[in-house]
Design a protein that fits this description.
The chain is α+β, with helices and mostly antiparallel strands. Helices cover 66% and strands 11% of the residues. The protein contains 11 helices and 7 strands. The protein has helices at 2-35, 37-40, 43-55, 57-87, 97-100, 103-106, 108-132, 170-176, 204-213, 218-246, 255-282; strands at 140-145, 148-154, 160-162, 166-167, 180-183, 187-190, 196-199. The strands form 2 sheets. The chain has a 4-stranded mixed beta sheet. A 3-stranded antiparallel beta sheet has the order 1-2-3, with no helix packed on it. Helix 1 crosses helix 10 (218-246) and helix 10 packs antiparallel against helix 11 (255-282). The longest helix is centred in the N-terminal third of the chain and has 34 residues, at 2-35. The N and C termini lie far apart (66 Å).
Length: 285
């Protein structure tokens, strides 16, 4: 009875591992499409994408589902690894793992742990900064009129507010006599009427470029990011195909196609992710 319960528990863990893994593959594809705007689009479009991803209710719900999936996938992976080790405490007298399995399949726990560390570091440097850093800049543009340059805040309603006319808060606005001030980190308010006149874009584009182009740590950050994507490629190489196998979706007709698509996904997605910081650091001016 105990063995039966253990078996069912193990199978359940593998199913959840497969389902959360495939969901995270979908997240990777969507996240990649958004990040590629750093190369193929401009700051405004990227910041509009970032605002949409953090304000749209449906997307926010998917974001929470993604966070839960990452945690569940990681914990489930550790439990399955521990279960496998516990089930076979003594190694075989003659063991040749390289002959019986791929590097990725033998090291999924290690690869997964490295990816989890990368996710935490990545979120600290970008997600946390965007959501909680009081110094998070708002996007501005510089225009030239009558031989003079003027810096303007962009607003989400396609408006422009001169930077010199905006104070950091109401107290500073009344002291300096500026026409408007910033409230709640992104919202512009009229100083006299205390009414909202617009909302700015958090300049995640600027933060991202500064991170990878930093004179001291930009190159190191770029190299570590590329290495992390290599780890992701190995993890996906086994994980993608293994998920379909666990769910029983790899019959004789579909197995070659799933293997081909999984291999292509495991190579193309990490490479495209890796290209972004490399392009920013070495080629973007």
């Amino acid at each position: 009875m105990a063995k039966s319960a253990l078996l069912k528990s193990s199978i359940a863990k593998k199913y959840w591992m497969a389902l959360t893994g495939l969901f995270l593959c979908l997240f990777l594809a969507g996240h990649l499409a958004g990040n590629l705007q750093l190369i193929f689009s401009d700051a405004l479009h990227f910041n509009q994408y970032a605002l949409f991803m953090t304000s749209n209710p449906a997307v926010k719900l998917l974001s929470y589902l993604t966070y839960i999936s990452i945690l569940f996938h990681a914990v489930d992976g550790f439990l399955l690894t521990y279960q496998n080790i516990k089930a076979r405490p003594i190694g075989y007298a003659k063991n040749s793992p390289a002959a019986n399995s791929s590097f990725s399949s033998r090291n999924m726990a290690v690869l997964g742990t490295l990816i989890l560390v990368f996710i935490v570091v990545h979120m600290v440097n970008f997600w946390a900064v965007m959501h909680f850093d009081e110094k998070m800049p708002l996007q501005t543009i510089t225009v030239e009129a009558m031989g003079q340059k003027q810096e303007l805040f962009l607003t989400t309603n396609e408006g422009y507010i001169p930077v010199p006319q905006v104070a950091k808060n109401f107290e500073e606005a009344t002291k300096m006599g500026t026409a408007s001030y910033i409230e709640y980190r992104t919202e512009f308010y009229n100083t006299q009427a205390k009414v909202k006149i617009g909302e700015g874009y958090k300049d995640l584009h600027k933060i991202t470029l500064a991170f990878f182009k930093d004179a001291k740590f930009g190159l190191i950050a770029t190299i570590l990011y590329v290495l992390a994507m290599a780890v992701l490629a190995f993890h996906l190489f086994h994980g993608f195909q293994s998920a379909f196998q666990t769910l029983g979706l790899n019959n004789s007709n579909w197995t070659p196609k799933i293997k081909l698509f999984g291999t292509a996904f495991a190579i193309i997605v990490p490479i495209l992710f890796a290209i972004i910081p490399v392009y920013i650091h070495f080629f973007l001016k």
